[in-house]
Amino acid sequence: MSSLYRYADYLPQPTPENFPSPVRNREKINPLKAGSFFPEFFIEEARVINAGPLLNNAHSGASLHSLTLQPLVVVFYSWHWNNYADQLIERLKESHAAITAAGARLLVLSSEDKKQFTSVYPEALPFDVVHDAQYRIARKAGIYRESDPIWGFVSGVNADVPVPAAYLITPSLEISYDFVDLYLQEEFSPEAVVAAIGKKLAISA
Questions:
Q1: In whole angstroms, what is the distance from residue 2 CA to residue 101 CA?
Q2: How far apart are CA 135 and CA 149, in angstroms?
Q3: What is d(CA 164, CA 179) in angstroms, rounded to the nearest whole number?
Q4: Does the predicted model carry a pTM greater than 0.70?
Q5: CA-CA distance, 63 to 54, in Å (whole number)?
Q6: Which residues form the Alkyl hydroperoxide reductase subunit C/ Thiol specific antioxidant domain (predicted)?
Q7: N-to-C CA span, the chain
Q8: H helix or E strand, kind and range, residue 139
Q9: How far is CA 203 from each of CA 11, 99, 170, 191, 196, rounded to the nearest angstrom?
């Protein structure tokens, strides 16, 4: 009996894509939570992508402490979150006026640099956007670690970037509101932020 076509019905196995596997026994990200204090950081002028009310005159850079003369909403962003990222920017554009009217300012920290960010959003935005180079601020916030990459637990994200997060930081650098979306399954709520701003200002009055 001929064996010429014995294995004809067996398809060759596809070659898997060469992605490095997450580190075994990895140290997981540990996001900051409300009640803790946000570590100080400094924004260099060269990292400013879009200069809004906060950084329009900060020609020599600015520290976090100098930006929190009133409550500051800090939102992390990456275009590698795909449609989630676009929806986040749209919510921020729509809610910026309400956040400002509530007595706070808005700062967006982008994982992408100015050239990359403006290729997606070429128009001027009403809020400040800064490049978080090498995820330095995201590391301080506990939302990025090389040992626990987002692509290891979120399908569709193929880049090593932070997870989505937003914080309301008071003048004392205390976090009074936090939003962290580990699996990109929730929606950032500007209404919740505005409510938290009003509550904090009422307590401080």
A1: 83
A2: 12
A3: 8
A4: yes
A5: 11
A6: 62-177
A7: 93
A8: helix 136-141
A9: 68, 18, 12, 18, 11
Asked whether 38 and 32 are in contact (CB, 8 A), the reply is: yes
Full set of structural domains in the chain with CATH: 50-204 (3.40.30.10)
Tell me the residue type at 191: E
Residues ≥6 apart with Cβ < 8 Å to 37: 172, 173, 174, 175
CA dihedral over 73, 123, 84, 151, signed as positive or negative: negative
Residue given tokens 């916030």 in the structure block = 141
Other beta carbons within 10 angstroms of residue 94's beta carbon come to: 10
Q: Could you give phi then psi for residue 183, rounded to 5 degrees?
A: -115, 15
Q: What is the DSSP letter of 183?
A: T
> Given CA atoms 174, 154, 119, 122 in this order, what sign does their dihedral have?
negative
Dump pLDDT digits (tens) for 85-106: 999 999 999 999 999 999 999 9
66-88: per-residue pLDDT in tens? Answer: 999 999 999 999 999 999 999 99
Report yes or no: 111 and 80 within 8 Å, Cβ to Cβ: yes
| Beta bridge partner(s), residue 77 | 110
- Residue 6 CA to residue 29 CA, distance in Å, equals 51
- β-strands 128-131, 48-50: how paired? antiparallel
